Amino acid sequence: MAIDSLFILNTSGKPVIEKHWCEEASVRKDTTLTLPAFLRYLEGFDTIKEAEPIWYYPPSSTVCVHIQRNDLVYLCTMSSDVGPLQVLDFLDHLVENATEYIGNVTEVTLKENFIIIYELLSEMMDSGSPITTDISLLKNLVPPPNFVNRVIENVTGIGLDSDASPQVNVSSIPWRSSGIKYTRNEFYVDMVETIDAILESNGRIVSCNVSGSIICDCRLSGMPDLRMSFNQPSLLDNLSFHPCIRIPRWESEKSLSFVPPDRKFKLATYSIDSGVIQNGIPLHMSGRASFESNTCNLQLTVMANQQMVLKSSGAASTGALGGNLGSLGGPRKKALEDVKIELPLPTTAYNIRIQTKKGAYSVDQSKSDQTKLTWQLKTLGLNDNSVDLYVQFSLKDSTSSTIKSDASSRPALSAFAQFKLTGVSASSVKINSLKMIRETYNINKGVKTITQAGTFQMRF
């Protein structure tokens, strides 16, 4: 596997960070031919979310693999036969590791910490092939910057060496150093499930995929050996494990046995067959669009899945090891949280009128190639029945005349939803217990279950 180039692009398509592992001729090809073509490819979509993450550009015989996180696009180019899923996995690790080092990854923070980012890339990659992506190992190779050094570097522009030299891991377990000590021993788990769904205008589900991540924050002394069990392990599919997992134990007992890395790490990822999703989807959406002359009328209706919201206020799951495996995140709200609907409108839309009884809305027309309506509801709970948004807008003459003559040429309209539901999983999979052997101290432990939207789209 060999990646030729990596580009981290801002909203304007300009590289904030770029790194090359190929010959000079390939660098010129990527920067002058492939990158502009890729940007033109993205311009063909209303939102970057709609673009396929894997795209082939025949003139340069180059495969482009990208992901979007916040307002940045992470793009890898390859001219050789490379597994695209491996590249997507590398990009995910790059974002996670950069976040661990510099916090929220934005164009500004990348520019402020470009030295750290290039050091990370040097350790993570060798001649275009990923070699080290585990955050615990990287912290031994690239010490995280301290606060004082960050301030001096930002003011003077001069990079400073870290106070501490890279640690040499003398442990027999490469992902965990020996001699770790904490005065307060804690192990917390976030079980995050992400729903990608496409709905018809009547609310019927066309496709639905659930992917999950088990993210742990370990602050345990010594060399703890942990056992984690689930209520329905048979539902977990397409599993990808951290190297610390003992695979034979999972295959024989369907429980996770591992010596954890220190601090935050991703223990496992999985997917759920849509045919066995028991709780349904957290948000119901339906809509209607009608065109008359040069006017378009839209109605969008949203409602929380009452069954799932009720379950989110249920009791915490229990486990072993000196008490309950408690629920984290404070009192549970009987509501979907951080609900936001984005509705890209045709670029020819004008005279936009909006009406709703709940939430706040805004229209962004700052970009010449896109008009976007954003409807923020914040919460949507048991006391909320269906909530409607009414939108009316006019279309410029050239567009309206085309619509009159050919109904199939009407602009394709979609609504994209974001939301979060704490305390319940879409798959109904739960962590039953967390046990520790080898060490004898007591630990504080807890689990937080979150269901959130990935690409959640309703087509009018």
Automatic annotation (TrEMBL):
UniProt entry tagged with the keyword Lipoprotein: no
Question: CDD domains per the record?
Answer: AP-3_Mu3_Cterm, AP3_Mu_N
GO cellular component labels: clathrin adaptor complex; endomembrane system
Query: Where is the protein localized?
Result: Endomembrane system
Keywords assigned by UniProt, alphabetized = Membrane, Protein transport, Transport
Which InterPro entries does the entry mention?
A: Adaptor_comp_med_subunit (IPR050431), AP2_Mu_C_sf (IPR036168), AP_mu_sigma_su (IPR022775), Clathrin_mu (IPR001392), Clathrin_mu_CS (IPR018240), Longin-like_dom_sf (IPR011012), MHD (IPR028565)
Family that this chain belongs to: Belongs to the adaptor complexes medium subunit family.
The name under which this protein is listed is AP-3 complex subunit mu-2
